[in-house]
Every structure is written in C-alpha cells, then in structure tokens.
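Anyone up for a design puzzle?
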C-alpha cells in the first residue's frame, strides 16, 4: 500500500460522508413537504455505501493483505417506512377522511445520522492530515 492509496481511501470516505450529509440536509429540509415531484409526501432518502471497486494492482495488494479499497455511494434509495398520518381536515392535502400523509422523516433519526456522519467525516480528514504529515516528514532532509 502506497501513501497515495492512503490518501485515496481517506478522500473516498470524505466524499461519501459529504454526500450523506447533503442527503440528510435534504431530508430535514423536506420534513413537512406534503407534496413531492412524484406526487404524495416527500419520501426520506438514504445512501447505500459499498466498498469502492479495486484496480488489478489494488486487488493484488489486497490478496497480500496490504490494503482495502475505500468507499463509495452506489445508490440513493427511498426509505420504505410508512408515511405518518395526522388528522387535519382543513389541510389542502387531506384525504376524504381528513387525514394528511406527512413524510417518513424523523428529526431525531436524521440528527443522529448527521452527527454520526460528521464524526466519520472529521475522522477521515484527520487521517488524511496525518498521512500528509507523514509524507512531509519523510521528504525532509536532515
């Protein structure tokens, strides 16, 4: 595993967590959206993470137990949790019985996910900076 591989792995995690935080922000922004582009209430979105595919050389290193491959977001899917229903007959989006379907977004769940994602983001920035310092220290001539 070269030092470039360490940089690449940290950068892949930073990018994946940045995208996750953007998705969480979108979920929070639409927490009260009763109308979406597809019709019906907004549906919570969740990123799916997977190990980043490796090149042939990286596969050889992995076979020799030298390195992993980083991470990437392979898809963003809609959460299948049922929508919340509240009784509000005066709402423009109420059904015939007076119930309004609200998004399946939970403020507490999103905030927990956001804190978790931000901590992993910060940890990978720290790992990147430590790797950079190691590279700089290696290049210093005494």
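Challenge accepted. My sequence:
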């Amino acid at each position: 595993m070269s030092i470039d591989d360490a940089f690449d792995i940290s950068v892949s995690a930073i990018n994946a967590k940045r995208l996750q935080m953007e998705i969480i922000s979108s979920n929070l922004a639409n927490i009260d959206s009763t109308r979406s582009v597809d019709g019906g209430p907004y549906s919570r979105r969740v990123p799916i993470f997977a190990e980043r595919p490796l090149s042939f050389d990286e596969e050889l290193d992995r076979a020799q137990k030298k390195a992993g491959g980083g991470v990437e977001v392979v898809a963003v899917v809609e959460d299948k949790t049922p929508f919340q229903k509240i009784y509000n007959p005066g709402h423009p989006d109420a059904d015939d019985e007076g119930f309004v379907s609200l998004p399946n977004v939970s403020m507490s769940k999103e905030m927990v996910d956001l804190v978790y994602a931000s901590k992993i983001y910060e940890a990978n920035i720290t790992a990147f900076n430590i790797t950079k310092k190691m590279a700089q220290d290696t290049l210093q001539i005494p």
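A detail worth pointing out: Residues 107-139 form the longest helix (33 residues).
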